[in-house]
Every structure is written in structure tokens, then in C-alpha cells.
């Protein structure tokens, strides 16, 4: 191996001479990072989180998490003399009277949106490339925990300014708590310290938002990073890439510079948004009073799918022995969240159960090469996306002149039909792309050279694919299929007995069967020459 | 009935009487024939314009009405299957509907949208038409310039009233919102102070009436002050993104924010390290 660069060697020696950790440093500064853009998506979330911590600290210097009533006497004229909570008044103070306060507030909020958005695209990359597979299942679950916590961090965060819009979100939160059977009313009283809205919820949310959840997030992010570092990255299939190596650039100097640059990009984009795009204009919403509500009250985007679920849910409830079970709130609050989060958390284990695949995987799948997984993912995105869209159905109705109830009914049908259609379309696209891959390997790529044969027929000459592309395609791995056939005495193997076993075998066969096996040049003698390069002779034809 | 001072309520109550239609037509004809000299219904200063209105204003209004309104509202504004009666709606309703271009309606949708005024609908023509409709059965009148002067109102007080009464349909800055069955609360941005006032007192289309006992004229002026102040305000935080809240913010976060960062990631990783 090459000697480490001087900058590492020197520092390592210095550290080694003093705390004996030079080897650790030397080894880890040369850690290899794969060079693929999709591997940087998680860093959007990481860097947004750093920006959130810094800007959040700035905001705590002036924010007063109190629901005590004050009369506003600040700079914003249309609210002058209006009675409001101290929390809202201090948020206005930050926006209009603290130098740079509005900019930092907006950067904080935009960073929050990009934090969750970054986590989502990162998670989708991991899902679609199968990077959650053994040995990375635990890190996957940490990721799901991070995403769930981020949703609650966001909810507690945008509730703090105590403006009219955040109050609407708080009211829904209270409604969801109340809908929980038996303990609901107690939970509501615990959280709000009495009747809604009470005087405690802002200060409680404040502690949760600036201390509890960020602390857990920080710990989990550290664990996430350490596990990633120890288990090493996955990599996309390609030339010389195996289950036993990682091909890419070392942390020092190459990746460190790229990573540093990407931090600056993230900071730059967030600052750009914070400067030029107004976000959460609390002064326009006005102070919260439970009597007021605005048209177009929406949560931040990551809560939109819950809002949509609530909006398309029919008004169902069950009355039993004097108790009401409010299904119209309970189902939208719990079922979509449960399907998405639980589904994501369990997916690695369900996949293992179905395929019986207990091997370690360090080379990522291309999404097309596991068509059922990709289709399930797209069905999930469609399910989520429809709910998310319907969360904004009043804005869609008002701005595009579509009848509100039409959007509701569209949502009620699409939520069941949409994922199925997405599943089917995605599956067909995957198979089509696999066929294309197989064709590239067996027939080569179009050269753009048209040739006329002596008999007058025109053909296009195909050339073999470039080596790196061919290797990328050949990286396709077979998905194991459970052995389900009966032995000589008509008894199926152990895992395939009973209705569950039969289902498992059936699903395994559907999940793993490769419909488009790759055939390198058809493996036929004399066939190869048909794909020879342009100008390599004049007898090359394409069938 | 004549000469006793006509209020909206008494008209509404008696409208159902079998002879009401005849009485109303007789009233209208009588007024036209004898010249317009109706006493102001509630004596507010805004009625002065109409009370002092000459008979030919009403006559002119009548001919405008016959030409542009009667096909739906009936020859004597008695209403048809297509459109309601205009007796008792008052000059304010006429001024609101015609000056905002909603009337004459273009088609029978769930709601008549705001559109450019009809060509004949000059300020003068509208006031003549309003005088005619006012002459039919009274009703709310066009507010005076002073009544709707935003500079005389208190925007902070108006804001509280606005939040309590308007934003559940019109959105927190009056950007508009959806209602059921294809109806909607329109954006308040293009509405003039006079139109805002008239909408409150007449309750056009799906909107409820906020009469002077619910919200006093001074409070209405405060609300107008708030609405006009906020809508002309330069957004301190950059582009307002349509001022409809988190929907556009989320859209921008994905379409601008995440897209730019993904492009940056692609750019950064485009140059690969070559194996030595």
C-alpha cells in the first residue's frame, strides 16, 4: 500500500507520541469512500442538522417559552397593542427587533425542511439499492428511529412560536391524543397540564424540542455514523468491486475536500432559501386563540401525509357502552404512520425471511435488479405521496378550481388503487430495463454506423459495451429462492410446511425468480463476431 | 307600507305574501311615475347620494337593468329560476357585484368569479343601476369614502376581527380558500376598500352578512385598514411564496432546495479518482 501523505503521517506521529492513537488516525484518515452522488444524500441531513443546532442555539437567546399573556409593543405595526403569549411576542421580537433574527429563524426553518427531506431521499437510496441488508439492518433501524424522531422534533419546533397556524397543529395533536381509547383523556391532561390549551404546553414542548429530542438525535446520529464507519460503505457494482473491498477515494485528502465542499453547498442553499424565500411568516398568522382558524392551515411538509389521511377519512365512529371510539381520527393518525414506519423497519427482516438470504451484502443492488423490492418501494412512495398531496387538497381546490369533494373522493380511491398501479408499472419498467441490460451484454450497443449488405439490406453495426458499463451490468446478483419442492416421499422441506410455509415459498419464488438472466454473447460459437467493433471487418452483421 | 320607512327585514318578511309581488311592482311603477323622492331608509350619510338622486338616475338605471340584468333577474327584479330577486338587496350589492365584474354573470357555475367589468359598467352607470335597485326596496347602501378610508382605521384591532371572522374562509392574509361544491372564498387582494365593505354588509354568494350590529362600521373600517395594510406590505423574509403557508414552502424545499443539493452532489462526485 502507498505510504500515507505527509499531512497524515506527521499528525499521526504527533498524536501517537502523546496519546498513542496514531495508528487509529492513520488508518481512519485513509478510509475509503465510494464516489457516487447518491452516497452524499445522507450528508444533506447531517449538515442540515449541524446548521439546526447552531441556528437553534441563536434562537434560544431571545425566545421565551412562556404562555403568559403580554401586550405587544414591538416594531410590527399591525399587531401593536394586541394581547398575545410571551412565546409569540418573543418570536416576533426575534423576527423584527433582533439584528439578523429573521434570517436565522428562516435558515433554521428551511434547514429543518431539508433535514427531513435529506433523510427521506437518503433512506430511499438505501432502500432501493438494498443497502439495508445484512450486516446493516441495525443501522437501518437507527435511521428509521431518526426519521420518526425528526417528525416529532419538527412538530414540537413549529408549535413553539404559538402563532395561529401552529395552534391548529397543536389542536390536531390534542385531538389525536383524545382519540386514543381509555387513556386518551389522561394523556391529554398530562401533556397540556389540564384543559386545552392550558399554560404548560409551550414550555414543555420547548424542553422536548431543544433538549430531549436533539440529545437523542445526536446520540443516534453518532451511532449511525460509527456503525457506517465500522461496517464500511456499500458500493455500486462495477469493475474490481467485490464484497471484500471498497473502491473510491480516501477520506484524506480527496473525500474530506468533497465532503467539506458539500457542507458549504448545503449551507449555501439553505442560506439562499433563508434570504430569498419567506418561511413561516408568524406575524401574518397572528397570535393563537382556540377560537380562530385560518383557511389553508397546513402542517410542514413531513406531516402532510398525516394531514391528508385525516382529510380523506370518512367520519366513522363506534359507540360502545357509553364510550366513543373515534375511528375518523384514530385510523388516520396511526395507520399510515404505522404502515410506513413499521413497514420500513421490518422490511430487511421480511426480505430475509422470504428469500432465506442470510449472506452479508456489501455490493448494492441496482433497483431494476430486484424488481419486486423496487415496486414495493414505489407503491409505498405512491401511498405516501397521495396522502401528502391530499393534505393540501384545499389549496389544490382553491388554486386549480377543482371541487373540494372531488379531491377527497379522488384520494379515497387513489389511496388503494394508486399503489397497485405504481407497483405494476414499476415492475414492468424494471423488467424492461433488465432486458435492455441483457441486450447490451449480448448484442452490444448501437454504433450509429449503418451498413449496406451485398443483398441490399441495411443493418446497424453494434459494438461491445465499454468495460465499466459491462462490469456494472454484470454486477447483477441472483436473488435466492427458498427450496420448496417436495422430496421423494411428498414432504416439503421444513420451512415450507403449513399455510404460512406454503405462502412463504410462493412469495419467495415470486420475489426471487429471475425473468431476464444475463447471457454474455449468447454463449454460442461463432456468434460473437456479429458484435465486433466498427470497421473490424466487413462480414459483421446483426441478426 | 309606503312612507313608513322600509327596512330589509320587513321586506323579507312580507315577501312571501301572495300579493307581495304585485305590491312590489306597483311600488316600483309608482316610484317611477311619481318621481324619485323616497326617504333614506336608515338615514345614514351614504344614502344622501341616493336620496338626492334625481328621478332620471332611477330611470336610467331601470333601462340599464332591462338591458343587462333583466334576462336573469326578471323585468322588475322580481327574480327568476335562474337568479334571485334584487328587491331589498340595496345599492351596495349592485355596486359590489357590478364593479367587481361578477355581474353580469358569464355562465352558471357554482360561483360567479371576479372578472373585468362589463364595458357599459362605468362608475356612473353602476351608480344609476344602484339607484334603481335601491329604489325598489331599500337595503344596504354604498359606503361613503370616509367609511372605508384605511388611514382612519386601526389595523391592529381590525386584525383581531379579521382573524375571528374572515380567515377561516379567506386565509390568514386574504389569499382565498376552498369551500364545498366548487365554491370558494376569493382572494381579497384585488378588492377595493369599498368592495370589502359592501361584501360584509351584503354577503354576496356563499358569504354570510356581517351587518352593522354584528360588526360596527368603525370595526369594518379597522378590518379594511388591516387587510389593505397587510396586502401592501413588502414581505420582510423574501418572496412570500403566495402567502398560503407551508404547502408552497414544502414545494420550494423539494423543488429548489433538495434539487440544488442533489445537483451539487452529482457535480462533486462527477470527477472520479483514477486508479493508479
Core attributes:
heterodimer; A: mainly alpha; Cytochrome Bc1 Complex, Chain C; 8 strands; 6% strand; globular; disordered C terminus; B: 276 residues; mainly alpha; Cytochrome Bc1 Complex, Chain D, domain 2
Written description of the protein model:
With 543 residues, chain A is mainly alpha-helical. Helices cover 59% and strands 6% of the residues of chain A. Among the domains of chain A are: 1-30, no CATH class; 45-235 and 248-291, Cytochrome Bc1 Complex, Chain C, CATH 1.20.810.10; 436-531, no CATH class. In chain A, the strands form four sheets. A two-stranded antiparallel sheet of chain A has the order 1-4. Chain A has a two-stranded antiparallel ribbon with strand order 2-3. In chain A, strand 5 and strand 6 form a beta hairpin. In chain A, helix 3 (41-60) runs antiparallel to helix 5, helix 5 crosses helix 10 and helix 12 crosses helix 14 (371-390). The longest helix of chain A is centred in the C-terminal third of the chain and has 40 residues, at 404-443. The relative contact order of chain A is 0.09. The model of chain A is unreliable at 522-543 (pLDDT under 50). Chain B is mostly helical. Chain B has two domains: 8-137, Cytochrome Bc1 Complex, Chain D, domain 2 (Orthogonal Bundle), CATH 1.10.760; 146-232, Cytochrome Bc1 Complex, Chain D, domain 2, CATH 1.10.760.10. Chain B has twelve helices and two strands; from the N terminus they run H-H-H-H-H-H-H-H-H-E-E-H-H-H. Chain B has a two-stranded antiparallel ribbon with strand order 1-2. The N and C termini of chain B lie far apart (104 Å). The model of chain B is unreliable at 36-49 (pLDDT under 50). At the A-B interface, helix 5, helix 10 and helix 15 of A face helix 8, helix 9, strand 1, strand 2 and helix 11 of B.
Amino acid at each position: 500500500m502507498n505510504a500515507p501523505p505527509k499531512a497524515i503521517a506527521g499528525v499521526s506521529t504527533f498524536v501517537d507520541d502523546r496519546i498513542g492513537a496514531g495508528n487509529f488516525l492513520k488508518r481512519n484518515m485513509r478510509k475509503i469512500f465510494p464516489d457516487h452522488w447518491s452516497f452524499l444524500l445522507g450528508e444533506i441531513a447531517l449538515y442540515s442538522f449541524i446548521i439546526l443546532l447552531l441556528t437553534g442555539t441563536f434562537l434560544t437567546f431571545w425566545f421565551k417559552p412562556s404562555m403568559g399573556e403580554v401586550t405587544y409593543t414591538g416594531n410590527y405595526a399591525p399587531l401593536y397593542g394586541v394581547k398575545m403569549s410571551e412565546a409569540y411576542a418573543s418570536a416576533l421580537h426575534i423576527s423584527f427587533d433582533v439584528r439578523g433574527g429573521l434570517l436565522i429563524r428562516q435558515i433554521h426553518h428551511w434547514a429543518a425542511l431539508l433535514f427531513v427531506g435529506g433523510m427521506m431521499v437518503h433512506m430511499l437510496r438505501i432502500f432501493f439499492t438494498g443497502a439495508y441488508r445484512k450486516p446493516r439492518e441495525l443501522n437501518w433501524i437507527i435511521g428509521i428511529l431518526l426519521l420518526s424522531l425528526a417528525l416529532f422534533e419538527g412538530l414540537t419546533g413549529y408549535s413553539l412560536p404559538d402563532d395561529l397556524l401552529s395552534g391548529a397543529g397543536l389542536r390536531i395533536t390534542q385531538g389525536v391524543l383524545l382519540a386514543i381509547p381509555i387513556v386518551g383523556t389522561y394523556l391529554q391532561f398530562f401533556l397540556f397540564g389540564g384543559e386545552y390549551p392550558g399554560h404548560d404546553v409551550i414550555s414543555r414542548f420547548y424542553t422536548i424540542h431543544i433538549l430531549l429530542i436533539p440529545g437523542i438525535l445526536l446520540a443516534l446520529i453518532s451511532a449511525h455514523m460509527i456503525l457506517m464507519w465500522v461496517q464500511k460503505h456499500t458500493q455500486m457494482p462495477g469493475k474490481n468491486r467485490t464484497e471484500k473491498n471498497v473502491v473510491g477515494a480516501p477520506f484524506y485528502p480527496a473525500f474530506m475536500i468533497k465532503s467539506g465542499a458539500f457542507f458549504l453547498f448545503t449551507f449555501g442553499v439553505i442560506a439562499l432559501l433563508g434570504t430569498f424565500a419567506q418561511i413561516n411568516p408568524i406575524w401574518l398568522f397572528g397570535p393563537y386563540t382556540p377560537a380562530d382558524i385560518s383557511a389553508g392551515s397546513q402542517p410542514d411538509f413531513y406531516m402532510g401525509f398525516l394531514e391528508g389521511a385525516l382529510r380523506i377519512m370518512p367520519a366513522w365512529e363506534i359507540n360502545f357502552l357509553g364510550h366513543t371510539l373515534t375511528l375518523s381520527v384514530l385510523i388516520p393518525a396511526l395507520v399510515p404512520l404505522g404502515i410506513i414506519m413499521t413497514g420500513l423497519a421490518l422490511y430487511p427482516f421480511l426480505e430475509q425471511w422470504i428469500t432465506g438470504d442470510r449472506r452479508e451484502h456489501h455490493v448494492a443492488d441496482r433497483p431494476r435488479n430486484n424488481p419486486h423490492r423496487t415496486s414495493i418501494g414505489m407503491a409505498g412512495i405512491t401511498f405516501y405521496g397521495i396522502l401528502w398531496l391530499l393534505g393540501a387538497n384545499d389549496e389544490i381546490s382553491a388554486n386549480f378550481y377543482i371541487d373540494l369533494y372531488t379531491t377527497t373522493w379522488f384520494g379515497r380511491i387513489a389511496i388503494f388503487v394508486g399503489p397497485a398501479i405504481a407497483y405494476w408499472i414499476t415492475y414492468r419498467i424494471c423488467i424492461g430495463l433488465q432486458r435492455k441490460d441483457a441486450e447490451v451484454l449480448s448484442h452490444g450497443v448501437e454504433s450509429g454506423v449503418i451498413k449496406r449488405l451485398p443483398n441490399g439490406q441495411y443493418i446497424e453495426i453494434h459494438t461491445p459495451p465499454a468495460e465499466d458499463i459491462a462490469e456494472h451490468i454484470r454486477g447483477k446478483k441472483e436473488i435466492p429462492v427458498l427450496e420448496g419442492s417436495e422430496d421423494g416421499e411428498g414432504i416439503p422441506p421444513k420451512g415450507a410446511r403449513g399455510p404460512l410455509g406454503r405462502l412463504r415459498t410462493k412469495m419467495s419464488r415470486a420475489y426471487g425468480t429471475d425473468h431476464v438472466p444475463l447471457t454474455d454473447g449468447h454463449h454460442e460459437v461463432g456468434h460473437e463476431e456479429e458484435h465486433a467493433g466498427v470497421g473490424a471487418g466487413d462480414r459483421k452483421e446483426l441478426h | 307600507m309606503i312612507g313608513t320607512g322600509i327596512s330589509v327585514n320587513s321586506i323579507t318578511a312580507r315577501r312571501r305574501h301572495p300579493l307581495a309581488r304585485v305590491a312590489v311592482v306597483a311600488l316600483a311603477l309608482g316610484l317611477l311615475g311619481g318621481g324619485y323622492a323616497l326617504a333614506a331608509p336608515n338615514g345614514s350619510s351614504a344614502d344622501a347620494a341616493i336620496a338626492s338622486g334625481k328621478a332620471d338616475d332611477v330611470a336610467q338605471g331601470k333601462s340599464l337593468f332591462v338591458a343587462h340584468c333583466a334576462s336573469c333577474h326578471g323585468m322588475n327584479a322580481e327574480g327568476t329560476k335562474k337568479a334571485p330577486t334584487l328587491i331589498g338587496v340595496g345599492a351596495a350589492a349592485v355596486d359590489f357585484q357590478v364593479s367587481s365584474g361578477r355581474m353580469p354573470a358569464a355562465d352558471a357555475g357554482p360561483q360567479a368569479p371576479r372578472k373585468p367589468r362589463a364595458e357599459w359598467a362605468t362608475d356612473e352607470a353602476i351608480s344609476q343601476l344602484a339607484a334603481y335597485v335601491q329604489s325598489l326596496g331599500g337595503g344596504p347602501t354604498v359606503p361613503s369614502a370616509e367609511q372605508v378610508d384605511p388611514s382612519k382605521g386601526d389595523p391592529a384591532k381590525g386584525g383581531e376581527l379579521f382573524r375571528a371572522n374572515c380567515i377561516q374562509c379567506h386565509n390568514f392574509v386574504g389569499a382565498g380558500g376552498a369551500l364545498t361544491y366548487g365554491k370558494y372564498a376569493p382572494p381579497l387582494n384585488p378588492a377595493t376598500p369599498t368592495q370589502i365593505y359592501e361584501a360584509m354588509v351584503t354577503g354576496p354568494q356563499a358569504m354570510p352578512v356581517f351587518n352593522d350590529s354584528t360588526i360596527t362600521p368603525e370595526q369594518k373600517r379597522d378590518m379594511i385598514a388591516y387587510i389593505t395594510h397587510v396586502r401592501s406590505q413588502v414581505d420582510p423574509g423574501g418572496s412570500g411564496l403566495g402567502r398560503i403557508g407551508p404547502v408552497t414552502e414544502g414545494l420550494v424545499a423539494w423543488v429548489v432546495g433538495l434539487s440544488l443539493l442533489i445537483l451539487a452532489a452529482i457535480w462533486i462526485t462527477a470527477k472520479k479518482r483514477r486508479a493508479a
